[in-house]
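Q: Given only this backbone (395 positions), what sequence would you predict?
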């Protein structure tokens, strides 16, 4: 019986199994979201360092995630997905303790900053371990035929957790001070460790372990398409506020809200379309929709037009990651599944890393409107690459 023909009871049972595992992704990204909106201000205002240093503190976490991807995939494949997640949760506990220590040493700015950065590095490594571990665990639990659903729900958990965590962190700091952040991270991760103790894991798959760079080479064509399509997301989140200011508009935050809501709604409503129509077809349609949204942002004569564009961009981008992921994971053996997921995730990390400097240069030379034209052009390039990959697969 194919995925789209599953009876409602069976489909719901699979979803429940997936949600019970991606819960740990939710906890991890809640811990990432809590400090994300308040740490730059803490570093700049309380510790007295420049805005550049504040940005580096935030960026250190994402750099650690990117660099730890090979290790995360290898650990998931060799020691098991559950143990990889456990190590990730332990990393968050330590990160919370270091964050708390940093706030207690606020009167010593440099030691406080260095300890805070160490905590951010641990949080980044934990993000990589838990992100790969949960998806790989889901695929082992419910089957590779539900890869799209596993990746899709993992994304919902991560985006939803950050959406909740960011404003909650602001409220917590206002009410209880910066020390509450470190305590919350450690408590949340410790609670997840208690819950995961008795949860049965899937066995480690025996077989050939491909070197990470061999896996990376197999995944790269699909990852390149993902990068090209995802730069629009990095562009929107990084520059939408400056774009609005440049146009003399207010309410840039609503653009991000509309993008996020449409992103999650699309995953909830249409994730099964990937199983029904295939990863390539779903990705092609979704990249086309995202491109239309980016073009609307480029040409937007008003905030209403911009909001529609942001919504279409979120709606389209939502399924690109799982749709291309389904096809990418087919390129590696099951025994190297974790490495494949890690290699694939690197390309999304890359999109976020290059969007800032690349589109910053475009804005400096051409103006802010043209960043969305450039993102749309890259998205069209990704669409063309996906069409080529589909043609090659059919041939």
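A: Predicted residues:
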């Amino acid at each position: 019986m194919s995925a789209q023909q599953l009876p409602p009871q069976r489909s719901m049972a699979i979803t429940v199994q997936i949600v019970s595992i991606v819960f740990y992704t939710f906890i991890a990204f809640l811990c990432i979201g809590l400090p994300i909106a308040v740490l730059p201000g803490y570093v700049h205002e309380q510790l007295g360092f420049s805005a550049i240093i504040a940005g580096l503190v935030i960026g250190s976490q994402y750099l650690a995630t990117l660099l730890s991807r090979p290790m995360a995939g290898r650990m998931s494949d060799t020691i098991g997905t559950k143990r990889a997640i456990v190590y990730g949760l332990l990393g968050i506990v330590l990160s919370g303790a270091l964050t708390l220590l940093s706030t207690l040493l606020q009167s010593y700015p440099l030691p406080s900053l260095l300890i805070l950065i160490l905590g951010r590095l641990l949080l980044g490594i934990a993000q990589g371990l838990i992100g790969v571990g949960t998806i790989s665990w889901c695929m082992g639990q419910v089957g590779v035929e539900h890869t799209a659903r596993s990746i899709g729900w993992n994304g919902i958990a991560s985006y939803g957790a950050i959406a909740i965590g960011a404003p909650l962190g602001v409220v917590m700091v206002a009410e209880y001070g910066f020390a509450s952040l470190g305590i919350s991270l450690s408590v949340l991760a410790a609670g997840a460790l208690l819950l995961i103790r008795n949860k049965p894991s899937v066995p480690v798959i025996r077989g050939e372990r491909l070197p990470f760079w061999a896996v990376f080479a197999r995944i790269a064509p699909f990852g390149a398409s993902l990068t090209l399509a995802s730069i629009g997301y990095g562009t929107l989140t990084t520059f939408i506020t400056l774009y609005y200011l440049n146009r003399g508009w207010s309410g840039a935050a609503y653009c991000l809200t509309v993008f996020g809501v449409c992103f999650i709604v699309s995953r909830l409503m249409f994730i099964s379309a990937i199983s029904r129509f295939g990863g390539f077809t779903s990705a092609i349609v979704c990249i086309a929709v995202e491109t239309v949204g980016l073009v609307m942002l480029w040409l937007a004569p008003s905030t209403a037009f911009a909001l529609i564009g942001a919504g279409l961009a979120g709606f389209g981008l939502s399924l690109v990651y799982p749709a291309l992921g389904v096809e990418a994971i087919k390129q590696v053996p099951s025994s190297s599944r974790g490495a494949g997921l890690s290699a694939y995730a690197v390309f999304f990390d890359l999109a976020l890393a290059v969007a800032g400097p690349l589109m910053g240069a475009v804005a400096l030379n051409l103006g802010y409107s043209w960043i969305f034209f450039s993102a749309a052009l890259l998205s069209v390039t990704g669409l063309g690459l996906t069409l080529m990959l589909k043609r090659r697969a059919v041939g």
